[in-house]
Amino acid sequence: MAQSDMPTMRSRRLGNELRRLRIEAGLKVTDAAKALECGQPKVSQIENGKRGIRPLDLTVLFNLYGVEDEAYQASLRRLAREIHKVDWWSSQGHLLHDSLKDYLTLEADSDAVRTYEPSVLPGLLQTEAYMRAIFEAGQRPENVDALVETRMKRKELLAPTGDFRLRTVIDAPVLHRINGSRQVVREQLEYLLKAAQNPSVTLQVLPVSAAVPTWQYVPVHIFTLRGEPPADVAWLEHMTGGTLLEQRRDVQVYVQGWNDLTAAALSPSESRRYIRGLLEESGS
């Protein structure tokens, strides 16, 4: 990957972690530059995610910062290698904005995601007809097929033999707002029931009567990133893209909010019964 193509989500994550280690060690950029026998701009570019780092330089920084945990070192070394990784969605080019590319990178680098959607069904649980209706309402016609193809490709994460886990809470009104014909509605509800049987998926419905503070009703995705130790980050969606939260104190607010949502939601078995009830109504 050319330096001009950076920063990327992975290079920013690596840079943030190296900056954190340096600060916790009580060192300045000048100290890191001296150890690496380079100028301060190089260290700043690494920490800002604007350039990668050589394995040897990473070893020097580990020694300088007193990082002895071999599993943690291995995680950062893997991340350093993967900033050059070419992901399957790279070929989509201009069709995918930077925020979506960042989201896809987080998804690909995670063991699990916890997601709450108050207005739409989670992308990984949408039928092709459902997602096509969404894209046709807000995208140029010539872009719809490629965007649908990208979202369908993401579903491969939920292969029963894979190690990815999806936990989702769906707001009940979303299930009553499935746009399309009766057939489209039935197909989407049937698909949710089928997905709920997948060992990789935990699906809960949040009923209208649930007593949850209104400030928690925001779309949020909590990713558990692979590594030693695993790290949680929170992704907040808004109309113009998304915002990544990495600081533990921020992420914990949303983890607690997620715990409150799952406690207030129907159990997985009750949720399946709720969806089956809607399916029966749609056939009447």
UniProtKB/TrEMBL annotation:
Enumerate the InterPro entries for this protein.
Cro/C1-type_HTH (IPR001387), DUF5753 (IPR043917), Lambda_DNA-bd_dom_sf (IPR010982)
What top-level branch of life does the organism fall under?
A: Bacteria
The molecular function terms in GO held by this entry are: DNA binding
A Pfam family hit? HTH_31
Q: Which residues form the HTH cro/C1-type domain?
A: 18-73
The name of this protein is Helix-turn-helix domain-containing protein
What is the species listed in this Swiss-Prot or TrEMBL entry? Streptomyces himalayensis subsp. aureolus
